[in-house]
């Protein structure tokens, strides 16, 4: 194994590890460890791609088993660490069709209902197109067992699997409505684009000003929550910009120094926002750049002054 192998197979290894863990930082660590193990053992497998995918998957399974206690004790709603792309380079139709499903926050949250081995079998078959003999070799299970695991996992996932239909133009239009509302514009246009049963999920990990234990449901409640939070963000000197988040249209909030405050993803179907997912846990934003150091303090001071 050499650096050329790492460069060639890293995208696949990261794709597996990220979908397995929902964490960019953990996925990076798993990929590094997988390649180090292969290099340390001086392995020269006939199929290096399959070999590295096997090590990556097994390390991800081990990680999830060790992380389950941390996940179960997580404060409030859990969302994956976001992947953010520039709105000026939005994914094309083919790329969007691929990423909007298997990389969406909604899909990654659904995977949490599967055990680590179930998740590995499901992803290798459904997302990466592995054949059952290959999956059996990767997971150390029989082909028959893999078929049963996949069928059971697929039924469970399909029950809650969301659909997405977001064109680049529609994504830009929706994020523009959010930006306009946050800057004091008319909320009615945004209100009309929220689905009647829209859901708001907030992940601060107990480290933000507000911890959402359960999602906020309904157009009226979500619209008011969005109006208050986004208006407050602008009033405190923060900046909002459009972005693509895990293949979905979204927004990034940062302070005047560029420190990250939150990342927001929108689930869109039939021209309406079905769900809003906000990641404000600073530990989940560090892979994207510097995190705001002053935001929470300024928010608390401003709130105390207004009381």
Task: Give an account of the 3D structure.
About 55% of the residues lie in helices and about 15% in strands. The protein has two domains: about 5-80 and about 100-160, Butyryl-CoA Dehydrogenase, subunit A, domain 3, CATH 1.20.140; about 170-305, Nuclear Transport Factor 2, Chain: A (Roll). It has helices spanning about 5-20, 25-40, 50-70, 95-100, 105-110, 115-125, 130-140, 145-160, 170-180, 185-190, 220-235, 295-305; strands at about 85, 195-205, 215, 240-245, 250-255, 260-270, 270-280. The protein is globular and about 60 Å long. Mean pLDDT is about 85; it is low at about 90-100 and about 300-305. Strand 6 (about 260-270) and strand 7 (about 270-280) form a beta hairpin. It has twelve helices and seven strands.
Layout of helices and strands:
Layout: H1 3-21, H2 24-40, H3 48-72, E1 84-86, H4 93-102, H5 105-111, H6 116-126, H7 132-139, H8 143-160, H9 168-182, H10 187-192, E2 194-203, E3 216-217, H11 219-235, E4 239-245, E5 248-254, E6 260-269, E7 272-279, H12 295-306
Parallel strand pairs: 2-7
Antiparallel strand pairs: 1-4, 2-3, 4-5, 5-6, 6-7
Helix pairs in contact: 1-2, 1-3, 2-3, 3-7, 6-7, 6-8, 7-8, 9-11
Structural class: alpha+beta
Q: Mean pLDDT across all residues, rounded? A: 83
Please, how many domains? 2
Largest sheet: 7 strands, mixed
Strand order of the largest sheet: 1-4-5-6-7-2-3
Q: Choose one word for the global shape.
A: globular
Give a count of the beta strands, DSSP E runs of length 2 or more.
7
Tell me what portion of residues adopts beta-strand conformation: 15-25%
